[in-house]
Prior knowledge:
Layout: E1 2-4, E2 7-9, H1 20-28, H2 60-64, E3 73-78, E4 83-89, E5 95-97, H3 107-115, H4 121-124, H5 133-145
Antiparallel strand pairs: 1-2, 3-4, 4-5
Amino acid sequence: xxxxxxxxxxxxxxxxxxxxxxxxxxxxxxxxxxxxxxxxxxxxxxxxxxxxxxxxxxxxxxxxxxxxxxxxxxxxxxxxxxxxxxxxxxxxxxxxxxxxxxxxxxxxxxxxxxxxxxxxxxxxxxxxxxxxxxxxxxxxxxxxxx
Length: 146
C-alpha cells in the first residue's frame, strides 16, 4: 500500500527472482564494484528471448571490429585532480558510468559526467590492457587501410 496526496493506492506485490548465475556474480563482486542488473516484465512461462543488439553510436565500429566488447570495464585516473572513473560498455555501444543511473552515448559525455568538465573521452578512458579508446580507433583505421 502506498499513501499519496490523493489517498491510499493499492499496488501489487513485486516478486524478483535471480538466476543462480547472477547470485554467483554478486558473490564474486568486490566491495567497491557496481553490478548492473536489468529487470523486465515476465510471466510464469519461459523468459522471452532477446534478439542480438547491434552497437550504434561512436563506439559501434570498434565494437563491430572486435576491438572492444560489451561488458568491458573502462577506467581513468587523474591523480592531480584526485579523480578516478569507471564505465562499462553496453551491448548497444553506450557507457554506464559508476554512480550514474543512465548510460551515456559517447566516451566524452561519459568522461564529462565524472570530471564535470568538457573533456576528450577518447583519450581519457583506458581498457583493461591500458589502451585508450583513441588507440582502438587508430587500430581500426590501420586495419581498414591495409
